[in-house]
Amino acid sequence: MRGIECDDLGDANVKVPPGTQPDVILRLKGKRLPRFGGRGRGDLFLRLQVHVPERLSDEERKLYERLQALLRKGKA
């Protein structure tokens, strides 16, 4: 579980399911600003974005290559 920080709400924990793809939108029910008229809070929507590192250490590169080989074989 990863934590996020939102300026108007503080910290929240978000469970991102395994295998979640980029640009998926997650809904955090009742975690947004109060609704007009005082009837609870609205929902907060998060769009997940993947950031790929520009530079990898030799060890990181080898690990990614190993993962890629496993994915090709259908073992990951």
Molecular structure report:
The chain has 76 residues and is an alpha+beta fold. It has a single domain (2-73), classed as Urease metallochaperone UreE, N-terminal domain (HSP40/DNAj peptide-binding domain), CATH 2.60.260.20. Helices cover 21% and strands 24% of the residues. The protein has one helix and four strands. The strands form two sheets. It has a two-stranded antiparallel ribbon. Strand 1 and strand 2 (10-14) form a beta hairpin. The chain starts with a strand and ends with a helix. The relative contact order is 0.15. The mean pLDDT is 80.
User: Which parts are unreliable, with pLDDT below 50 for 5 consecutive residues or more?
Assistant: none
The gyration radius over C-alpha positions equals: 18 Å
Share in helix: 10-25%
The CATH class label is Mainly Beta
Query: Tally the helices: what do you get?
Result: 1
- Summed up, the domain count is 1
Query: How far apart, in Å, are the first and last alpha carbons?
Result: 20 Å
Order of helices and strands: EEEEH
Q: Based on DSSP secondary structure assignment, what is the total number of beta strands?
A: 4
- Reported by name, the CATH topology is HSP40/DNAj peptide-binding domain
Instruction: Bin the strand percentage.
Output: 15-25%
Structural class: alpha+beta
CATH homologous superfamily caption: Urease metallochaperone UreE, N-terminal domain
